[in-house]
Amino acid sequence: MTTLDKQPSVPSVQVFRYGHRPFRDKRITTHVALVSRAFGASAVYVDEKDDVLEETVKKVSGNFGSGFQLTTGKKWQNVYGKFKGVKVHLTMYGFPVDEVIDDIRNSGKEVMVFVGSSKVPPEVYKSSDYNVSVTNQPHSEIAALAIFMDRYFQGAELKGRHDGRISVIPSMKGKEVRVVPDERESLKILKNAGASDELIQHAETVRELAVRIGERCKADLRLVTAGAMLHDIGRTVTHGIGHAVAGARIVREAHVDERVARIVERHTGAGITREEAVELNLPPADYVPETIEEMVVAHADNLVSGSKRINLNIVVENYRRKGLMQAASRIVDLHARLSRLCGIDIDQI
After folding, report:
1. Greatest alpha-carbon span in the chain
2. DSSP line for 216-252
3. End-to-end Cα distance, the chain
4. 313, exposed or middle or buried, with CB in 10 Å at 0-12, 13-18, 19+?
5. Which run of H or E residues covers position 305?
6. Is residue 8 scored above 60 in pLDDT?
7. Other Cβ atoms closer than 10 A to 239
8. What is the Cα–Cα distance from 151 to 144, expressed in whole angstroms?
9. pLDDT tens digit string along 310-325?
C-alpha cells in the first residue's frame, strides 16, 4: 500500500536525512520522518543507526496508516549518491523552489530529497541534480521539506486518506478521534457495555469464522475483527430486531471508527431494507451490507448459533419457518456472492 490512499499522479518521493545524532537530534529527525510521511513521501533513510527512532515511526505508521518505511544506518553515498532518479538537495544556498519545481515534477523520474544538518559535505552539492532553497534566509530544514513536498504534489498530498487504525476527525473545537479497535480493545468495549460471557463467546466464534472468510476474499481484517467482536454489543440493551441499531450507537459513543459502526448496524441477516426498517419501527434507513467487510461479518454471524457453527441450509430454513422469505433469499444470495469471492463454498471454510 502506498503512503496515501490516493497518491498524486507524479513520481514518488523518498527522503534522505543526513547528520542525525541519536542522542541529540531524535526529536528533529522524528519530525523530518513525520513530515515526510504526512506530506506524501514513501520512505526515509537516516545516516546513523537508531532503533528507537525506527520503532517510534513504525508505531505512528501502524496507528495512523500507510506503507511508509524508515530505515536507519545508511550511508548517504550508498543511497542518495547512487540514486538513479532526480536528486534534490534542500539548502538555503540553492535555487528558489518556485523556479525549478516544475522541471523536477515533470522529469518523469522518482525524486530523492536530501535533508541535511549544518555541515553537509561539498560532494552532496556537486552530486545533486538540483540544489533547492525555499528561502535564502536561515530557517528550519523541516519547514523547507514541508514546503518542497507541498509544491511538488501541488497540495494533493493533503487530500489523501491515510488508512490507519486511528483517524482524526476534523473539529473546530477540541479533539476528536475514531479508532479501529483490535481484538483486546474490542473485548474491553464489550465488557464495559456489560456483555455476558455467552455474548462474548458468540462474538469470538463469529470473529474466528469472519477472519477465515475475510482472508480468502481479501477483506480488511482489522475492520472484520472489530466488527465481528462488536456486532452484537447492542444485545446488552435489547435482544430485539433493534439490537444492531442500538449496537451501532454504543460503538459510536465509544469513539469507534464509523466503518466498524456500519458493520454493526448492517449485520442482521443479509441486511434490512429501508421499507422493512419502517415496518419494523427502526429508524428509516437502508441497513443492507455494502462493503465486503460488512458482508463478511453479517454472514459469519448467520452461520454461528451461540458458539456453534451451522450451515446455510439450517439458516435458511430457520428464516423461512418464521415467514421471512425475502430475508432468506437475500442470505442465499449473500452466501453465493461470498463463495464466488472466496473461490470456495463458505460452508466449506
Report:
1. 82
2. HTT--HHHHHHHHHHTTGGGGT-SSTTHHHHHHHHHH
3. 28
4. exposed
5. strand 304-305
6. no
7. 10
8. 11
9. 999 999 999 999 999 9
Q: Is the pLDDT of residue 170 over 50?
A: yes
Q: What is the DSSP string of 84-124?
A: -SEEEEEEEEEEEHHHHHHHHHTT-S-EEEEE--S---HHH
Q: How far is CA 51 from CA 63, 72, 195, in A?
A: 18, 8, 41
What's the pLDDT score for residue 161?
66
Radius of gyration of the chain (CA): 26
DSSP letter string, 129-181: SEEEES-SS---HHHHHHHHHHHHHTTGGGTS----SEEEPP-SSS--EEE--
CB under 8 Å to 167, separation ≥6 — which residues? 177, 178, 179, 257
Is residue 42 within 8 A of residue 14, CB to CB? The reply is: yes
User: What cell was used for 82?
Assistant: 547512487
C-alpha cell at 167: 483517524
Beta bridge partners of 318: none
State the amino acid at position 39 in one-letter form. Answer: F
- Say if residues 293 and 275 touch (Cβ distance below 8 Å): no
Report pTM: 0.78
CA distances from 214 to 110, 206, 266 (A): 35, 12, 17
Long-range pairs of 284-290 with CB within 8 A, sequence gap ≥ 24: 287/244, 287/245, 288/330, 289/263, 289/334, 290/262, 290/266
At CA 188, angle to CA 240 and CA 60, rounded to 5? 125
176-225 tens-digit pLDDT: 889 999 999 999 999 999 999 999 999 999 999 999 999 999 999 999 99
CB 198 within 8 A of CB 235: no
C-alpha cell at 81: 549518491
User: Which H, E and C letters describe 244-259, residue by residue?
Assistant: HHHHHHHHHHCCECHH
Mean pLDDT of 294-316: 97
- The burial of 290, by beta-carbon neighbours within 10 Å (0-12 exposed, 13-18 middle, 19 or more buried), is given as exposed
Q: Are 145 and 113 in contact (CB under 8 A)?
A: yes
CA separation, residue 178 to residues 260, 290, 316 (Å):
10, 21, 36
CB-based contact 34:44 (threshold 8 Å): no
